[in-house]
Amino acid sequence: MQSVRCIALFLVSLAGCAELPQAPQAAVTSAPAAVSPVPSARQLRWQELEYYAFVHFNMNTFTGREWGEGDESPALFAPSALDCRQWARTAKAAGMRAIILTAKHHDGFCLWPSKFTDHSVAGSPWREGRGDVLRELSDACREYDLKFGIYLSPWDRHSKFYGDSARYNDYFASQLEEVLSNYGEVFEVWWDGACGEGPDGKRQVYDFERFTEIVRGLQPGAVIFSDIGPDIRWVGNEAGFAGETCWSKLNTAGFLRGIGAPPTSSLNEGDRDGVNWIPAECDVSIRPGWYFHPEQDGEVKSLEKLFDIYERSVGHNGSLLLNLPVDRRGLVHENDAARLLELRQRIEATYAVDLARGARASADDTRGNAAHFAASRAIDGDPETYWAANDGRRKATITLELPQPTLVDRVVLREPIALGQRVERFSIEAKHDGAWRAIALGTTIGNKRFVRVERSPVEALRLTLECASAPPCLSAFELALTPQSP
Ligand code: FUL
Question: Rounded distance, CA 128 to CA 190, Å?
Answer without folding.
Answer: 29
